[in-house]
Write a structure and sequence with these properties.
The protein is α+β, with helices and mostly antiparallel strands and 574 residues long. Helices cover 35% and strands 23% of the residues. Helix 2 packs antiparallel against helix 3, helix 5 runs antiparallel to helix 6 and helix 9 packs antiparallel against helix 10. The longest helix is centred in the N-terminal third of the chain and has 22 residues.
């Protein structure tokens, strides 16, 4: 992947220039050597990432900063800052959230370990062993034909080992918040147990691993975070496999990477609406999956994965995005650079029903569509330049929107969602409560009177040039409900409204006919429209509209049975 390597080197050099501008180099500043992030915050994790990029460039013969004295001073300053904010017990803080944090320490060490392993390999062992060997060889050393390790590299190695050893020992006390934290901690503990021949680190790693890896048969991890934590988990699995020699950890990665092939939208971004974490609905491109596809594609000879490597770089070029921050891996494994593979991933049509994960991902020609269980935005369509999300909203007892409890595949391209909303009312306690303070009462133990139930049934059926949605409500009569269609990337609406420009947050109720949502490139045709009422906002705690989107409301009173046609076509402007 020589072409990829060259771009990775160029973009690493750009990262170094940017890092130099962020680094605090005033000796009197207590944060000397640290780096200000875009919000002005200075802390360990950000410093680790900047310093690691500098170190990779410093070690790379093709970098403009190869063995640069100026960058060497910056690296030492960065490592000094990192060491200064490492607690005596070895842990780091993530000062905007977590303190004395084992998982954030793991993330810091994860970034430093490849640099450490590269330099350790050049030195022929641990830092202190390398120093003794250097003395025996007159201060110069070559390992397996590699370039000699310099005094500067040896000093970086020594400082890295201090940070990593202490950090690994600090992580023995444990403590985590989220599912992925377990694997971050376990993988670093296991890797360090091998590097430093420390059995207690291995035992601590297995205390997490005995819980079992939370990657289901679909290839989805618990947090469903395609934009971020899935690949964090993948990295941990790869490190565990490398440290233990147990390739079964890689099976989780293989399943996830296969699933991710169906999570790429027509504009090259990752589908993130299913995430339970911060990346939900964020615009994320798949650059950080590059090394995972490359490593697994090479090891298991999977053409689709190697094709995806090329496609990721195509996406990065099209979107003017930086190459992944992975230069150190090309130094660790020159085979990555030597591999040449010219094909691109074709992104053909597919129908992927991930029953265990509660999601359907389909691609048909120029567009993808998604059906989700348990989400208010249960249906979405992306045609490359615009996105449509659909909700069914209203008020029924504590419910404010349809969230399917059941999702089934009827056939390829046809799916069924269903929810029964249970009505209920509290009844008086059968015995006198201990208090008259409502908030102190055990209200969960109150008897309940069952009320009416409301059924919402949705059918999604793919057609030749779009999708049909059938929405049926039953069980109660006269409730004002609505189908919400939220358009992003649209700038003009035509139809019964006689045409109107869209700036991004308009709301419209259309009683009949069809509307066309255009942006100069694509058109979505929606209809037949219906408007039985203008009650669109609901109660004060109703489901919120999609921020920044033009929203079309189709309204009716329950019970109703409506079919909506969504058609995708090229704009007449083209």
């Amino acid at each position: 992947m020589e072409e990829h390597y060259r771009k990775i080197v160029r973009d690493t050099d750009k990262r170094v220039v940017a890092a130099m501008q962020r680094q605090i180099m005033e000796p009197a500043d207590v944060r000397f050597g640290g780096f200000r992030d875009k919000t002005g915050i200075v802390q360990a994790k950000f410093a680790v990432y900047q310093t690691a990029a500098m170190a990779a460039a410093y070690c790379c013969p093709d970098s403009a900063f190869y063995r640069s004295g100026k960058i060497y001073d910056r690296i030492l300053a960065g490592l000094s800052y990192i060491r200064s904010v490492q607690h005596e017990n070895g842990l780091f803080d993530y000062i905007t959230c977590n303190f004395f944090s084992a998982p954030d320490t793991a993330f810091c060490l994860k970034k430093l370990l490849p640099v450490y392993e590269y330099l350790r390999g050049k030195a022929g062992g641990a830092a202190e062993d390398a120093a003794e060997t250097d003395k025996e060889n007159g201060g110069e050393m070559k390992i397996s034909g590699a370039a000699e390790i310099t005094a500067g590299e040896r000093e970086i190695l020594r400082r890295l080992e201090e940070i990593i050893r202490d950090g690994a020992n600090g992580m023995l006390a444990g403590g985590f918040h989220t599912p992925n934290h377990r694997w971050a901690i376990a993988s670093i503990l296991m890797a360090c147990s091998r590097l430093f021949c420390d059995a207690k680190l291995e035992r601590a790693a297995y205390s997490y691993l005995k819980e079992g890896i939370d990657c289901n048969a679909d290839g989805e991890y618990s947090e469903k975070s395609a934009g971020n934590y899935n690949r964090i988990n993948n990295d941990a699995m790869l490190l565990l496999s490398q440290a233990t020699g147990d390739a079964s950890y890689e099976q989780h990665v293989l399943r996830n990477l296969k699933m991710m092939l169906t999570y790429i939208e027509p504009d090259g971004s990752i589908f993130t609406a299913n995430s339970t974490r911060f990346d939900r609905d964020l615009l994320v491109y798949p650059t950080d999956y590059y090394m995972e596809y490359l490593r697994m594609g090479m090891k298991y000879q999977i053409p689709e994965f190697l094709q995806m490597c090329n496609s990721i770089f195509d996406i990065a070029e099209e979107k003017h995005a930086a190459a992944p921050d992975c230069l150190i891996w090309f130094l660790l494994c020159p085979d990555y650079r030597e591999l040449e593979y010219g094909e691109r991933y074709p992104f053909g049509d597919y129908h992927a029903f991930y029953g265990e994960s509660g999601i359907v991902r389909c691609r048909s020609g120029r567009y993808t569509y998604t059906v989700m269980k348990g989400k208010s935005n249960f249906f979405s369509l992306h045609n490359g330049t615009m996105k449509l999300e659909v909700k069914v909203c209203g008020s029924f007892c504590e419910h404010r929107a349809f969230r399917a409890e059941e999702l089934e595949e009827i056939s390829k391209g046809e799916y069924h969602l269903r929810q029964v909303m249970r009505g209920w009312y509290y009844l008086p306690f059968e015995t006198v409560p201990d208090t008259n303070d409502w908030w102190k009462m055990d209200n969960a133990a109150r008897p309940k009177k069952p009320g009416p139930d409301m059924l919402i049934d949705v059918r999604v059926k793919e057609t030749e040039d779009g999708v049909d949605l059938r929405v049926r409500t039953a069980g109660v009569e006269g409730a004002p409900w609505r189908v919400e269609l939220a358009f992003s990337g649209v700038n003009f609406i035509t139809g019964p409204v006689f045409g109107m420009p869209v700036s991004g947050s308009e709301v419209l109720v259309v009683k009949e006919g069809e509307i066309e949502a255009e942006n100069g490139w694509d058109t979505l045709v929606i209809g037949p429209c219906f408007g039985g009422h203008h009650f669109t906002e609901g109660k004060e705690d109703s489901e919120k509209r999609t921020p920044g989107a033009f929203t079309l409301y189709l309204t009716d009173y329950t019970a109703f049975d409506r079919e909506i046609h969504i058609r995708n076509k090229l704009s007449s402007i083209i």
